[in-house]
Design goal:
The structure holds 2 protein chains of 2 kinds. By secondary structure, chain A is mainly beta. Chain A is built from 2 helices and 11 strands. In chain A, the strands form 2 sheets. In chain A, strands 1, 4, 5, 8, 9 and 10 form a 6-stranded mixed beta sheet that branches. In chain A, strands 3-2-11-6-7 form a 5-stranded mixed beta sheet. In chain A, a hairpin with a 2-residue loop joins strand 8 and strand 9 (146-147). The two termini of chain A are 14 Å apart. The mean pLDDT of chain A is 92. Mean pLDDT of chain B is 92; it is low at 1-7. Chain B has a 6-stranded antiparallel beta sheet. A 6-stranded parallel beta sheet of chain B has the order 10-9-8-7-11-12, with helices on both faces. By secondary structure, chain B is α/β, with parallel strands linked by helices. The chains are: A mainly beta, B alpha/beta.
Chain lengths: 206, 254
């Protein structure tokens, strides 16, 4: 549509103190932390929790909760953007960067160009490895200094804040390297394969 | 959950389309349904939603998502909107918008929280407040079928006046022995109310829902706390987590 029609009587209530360049197109800032998941929140016990890095049919790294907690920790303060239109500014997350995870798995460089993240509840999401390296992605286990609540993806969620937040998969348990890109859960259901909020890549074809 | 086959569909962008407001239905004191004509609408599946976009004279735009409440078979596309106080978009849609107005919309969106008649039953629909909207699309779609699966709607509202679509729901249930409707009224019950008083709890779910052995298809929609609570109870009662599809929403910025 060339010229969007003016919505008669509609006025912005946007908080003007929000710097415009921090909120991607079509997003609004929320103070809440909404929850969006396709199914029930999985019940997890830390005793049974493991995290796996997988290449082809083989495990390249496996950690239990205690081992995972002992890995190098990184803290990142940044904004997050959900495809359902809300953005939340200045959120603080702590966890293990993808770079550190590779090192700990004995991999000097990523062995394949794509990743599928597998989660409790069967959820999956796919990402290019370049979007995870150089500090861009981590497995987060703390939000605002505290363990991540289960409904927000705890005990551990993928954290890739420069993409729409569905890519930051909740309840992540396994990262699988792939030679070729495959689509994850929402990516197979009409959502964009990559999901750059600044390009407003919400749905397939955006 | 779900082994989802990667589909090699041609990528078609969801373009913004003009929605013409044909009629506005007052559902409750804070909820209205917008009945829309969308030229060239390609249809939807019950449970899907749309994005809408409003534009001010200054060019500022706001987008929000709303569930579709109408059946695919219905002539007009219906969105049911609850006013979120201090919200930006919902007060406009509920209080300002009139028949004859138009706004932009694109969709349908979402392919998981969906039920179509070919998916069968038994169908267990659990709604909190305005979360009934996408479930209503399923019920309206189901109502138009010659063969209907056993279905339960368990619907939690604050009081009877807050029950959206009440007349239509009651009329549906009256003509359909395979449809059961259970209202739970959390804050205020009319005199002589024999239904559930207070929140949906485990005992009520155990009593009225289909037993897990019948492999019901379960859809839960409502505010986050409601959905978290109900979905957790359903798992505790023995339902396969993968059989429970959830949609959590609002009020967030509305």
């Amino acid at each position: 549509m060339e010229e969007p029609p003016i919505s008669r009587g509609f006025r912005s209530r946007r908080q003007e103190q929000t710097p415009k360049n921090r909120v991607p197109p079509g997003q609004y800032v929320t103070m809440d932390f909404p929850v969006l998941s396709a199914g029930p929140t999985p019940l997890n016990t830390l005793e049974k929790w493991t995290f796996v890095v997988q290449l082809g049919g083989s495990q390249r790294g496996k950690w239990n909760w205690t081992e995972f907690e002992a890995l190098p920790q990184t803290t990142k303060k940044t904004d997050i953007h959900c495809v359902t239109k809300w953005s939340k500014l200045d959120t603080t997350w702590q966890g293990v960067t993808f770079d550190d995870l590779l090192k700990e798995a004995g991999l000097t460089e990523p062995p394949a160009p794509y990743i599928m993240a597998h989660c409790d509840g069967g959820y999956t999401t796919n990402l290019p490895v370049v979007d995870l390296i150089d500090g861009k992605g981590m497995i987060a286990t703390r939000y605002e200094g505290l363990p991540i609540p289960a409904e927000h993806g705890g005990p551990a969620r993928l954290f890739v804040p420069h993409l729409y937040f569905w890519k930051s998969a909740k309840w992540v348990r396994r990262l699988r390297f792939m030679e070729r890109d495959e689509r994850g859960f929402w990516e197979s259901l009409g959502y964009h394969n990559y999901g750059d909020p600044w390009k407003e890549q919400r749905y397939d074809g955006d | 959950m779900m082994a989802i086959e990667t589909m090699a569909l041609p990528v078609r962008r969801l373009e913004w389309q003009l929605a013409h407001v044909r009629e506005i239905v007052v559902e409750t004191i804070s909820v209205k349904s917008l009945r829309l004509h969308v030229t060239g609408w390609q249809g939807h599946r019950p449970g899907q939603h749309v994005d809408i976009r409003l534009t001010t004279e200054g060019g500022y735009q706001a987008q929000r998502s709303y569930s579709i409440a109408s059946a695919p078979e219905d002539e007009l596309l219906a969105l049911t909107v609850e006013r979120v106080n201090n919200g930006e978009v919902s007060p406009y849609l509920v209080d300002e918008l009139r028949a004859g107005d138009q706004f932009e919309l694109r969709g349908p969106i979402g392919g998981y929280f969906v039920w179509t008649a070919d998916m069968g039953g038994p169908l267990c629909l659990i709604a909190g407040g305005a979360g009934v909207a996408p479930l209503m699309a399923m019920l309206r779609h189901r109502d138009g079928q010659s063969s209907r699966p056993l279905t339960l709607l368990l619907y939690s509202s604050r009081c009877l006046d807050d029950v959206i679509y009440r007349e239509e729901l009651d009329a549906m249930a009256r003509c359909d022995p395979k449809l059961g409707i259970v209202y739970a009224l959390t804050r205020k019950q009319p005199e002589g109310w024999t239904g559930q008083r207070g929140r949906i709890d485990k005992a009520l779910l155990a009593r009225v829902c289909f037993p897990p052995e019948q492999n019901p298809k379960i859809f839960v929609c409502g505010p986050t706390t409601f959905v978290e609570y109900v979905a957790t109870l359903l798992v505790e009662l023995g339902n396969d987590p993968l059989s429970i599809k959830t949609e959590r929403f609002g009020p967030t910025g509305g």
